[in-house]
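Lab notebook, design round three. We kept the backbone fixed and only want residue identities now. Task for the bench partner: fill in a sequence for the structure below.
Input structure tokens:
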């Protein structure tokens, strides 16, 4: 018997790449090997030289198909087998290898919004607006929280796929939700998050809605969608890690523009200084401060060890890019480079 392998990759669409995938039937007992696709249809090649290569890098069970079927996260390569310009994982993997001795770990909180065909968030009335923000964050009851059936199915799918999903919650805006993935080293954190995003998009198809990663889907007094990036090194997690945590915050503070530029499209619309954000032009860090660029959780301040939370990355950020950059900035400073 053969099995189905769903090859997943990130395309070249500007300004925010899309996830693509296609199905390959593989003979039982065979690994999903190198494959290819038409890059001229994904903004990754021109028509007269269109072949791109799919290099499998992370394989897990496909929880939506039959037992034995697989999901195959891929890097995109050129036909000379070097990384394609859109392949952000290759650079992330190189940074991870360079600083492997510092043991960088990530936990990412992925926020997203269920949008209907006309762009209205799920559950919103056809005319006007729902009641103002307040009851939705971690809400339950009343009008059932819109999208919960999809969230429940997605969570089980992530568990069945063996992804490191940690939890979920309803978010501040009606129709907005979050799941957390971690704690994982780079670039594996990106592999798990991209596959979890693919599963969310795929499951949402069955409900006629779209799981948008837009950073500010509704203008006005409505929360944007972020991807808080929690980070630690071995030194931060050990007894007396406080100094390493502060040094990490300081290191990130020397590269504000570079980090903001890598944290996702439309970040200036989301990081306005309102709605639990710090303004994108300002940098600050503080204990328990949800209005700071980087928050140090209260338990970390109490234990004087743990991790830091960069609250600035957008929901639409690329976890390979963000994890690579945070690792590079913090670990190169710690290494005295
Ligand atoms: P909140 O919404 O209060 O910010 P969450 O529970 O949504 O908190 O997310 C906490 C995140 O912190 C999780 O993704 C978790 O993996 C991450 N985290 C916890 N400990 C560490 C650590 N030592 N290094 C990196 N990330 C961590
Ligand atoms: Mn959270
Ligand atoms: Mn959140
Ligand atoms: Mn958070």
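Proposed sequence:
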């Amino acid at each position: 018997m053969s099995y189905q392998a769903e090859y997943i990759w990130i395309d070249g669409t500007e300004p925010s790449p899309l996830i693509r995938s296609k199905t390959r039937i593989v003979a039982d007992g065979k690994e999903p090997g190198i494959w290819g696709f038409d890059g001229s249809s994904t903004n990754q090649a021109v028509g007269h030289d269109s072949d791109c290569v799919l290099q499998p890098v992370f394989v897990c069970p496909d929880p939506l198909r039959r037992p034995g079927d697989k999901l195959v996260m891929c890097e995109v390569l050129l036909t000379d087998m070097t990384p394609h310009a859109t392949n952000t994982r290759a650079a992330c993997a190189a940074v991870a290898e360079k600083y492997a001795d510092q043991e960088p770990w990530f936990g990412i909180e992925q926020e997203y919004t269920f949008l209907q065909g006309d762009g209205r968030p799920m559950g919103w009335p056809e005319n006007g607006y729902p009641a103002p923000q307040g009851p939705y964050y971690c809400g339950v009851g009343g009008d059932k929280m819109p999208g919960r059936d999809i969230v429940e199915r997605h969570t089980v799918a992530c568990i069945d796929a063996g992804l490191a999903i940690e939890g979920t919650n309803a978010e501040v805006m009606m129709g907005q939700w979050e799941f957390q993935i971690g704690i994982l080293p780079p670039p594996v954190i990106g592999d798990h998050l991209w596959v979890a995003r693919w599963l969310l998009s795929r499951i949402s198809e069955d409900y006629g809605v779209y799981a948008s990663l837009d950073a500010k889907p509704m203008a006005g007094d409505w929360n944007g969608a972020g991807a808080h990036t929690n980070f630690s090194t071995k030194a931060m997690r050990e007894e007396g890690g406080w100094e390493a945590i502060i040094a990490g915050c300081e290191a990130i503070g020397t590269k504000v523009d570079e980090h903001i530029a890598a944290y996702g499209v439309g970040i200036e619309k989301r990081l306005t200084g309102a709605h639990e954000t710090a303004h994108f032009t300002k940098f600050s860090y503080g204990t328990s401060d949800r209005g700071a660029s980087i928050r140090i959780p209260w338990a970390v301040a109490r234990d004087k060890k743990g991790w830091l939370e960069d609250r600035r990355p957008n929901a639409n950020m690329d976890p390979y890019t963000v994890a690579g950059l945070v690792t590079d900035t913090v670990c190169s400073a710690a290494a005295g480079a």
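Keep this in mind before ordering anything: Residues 105-107, 109, 166, 180, 182-183, 228, 230-232, 237, 306-307, 309 surround adenosine-5'-diphosphate (ligand 1) (CB under 6 Å).
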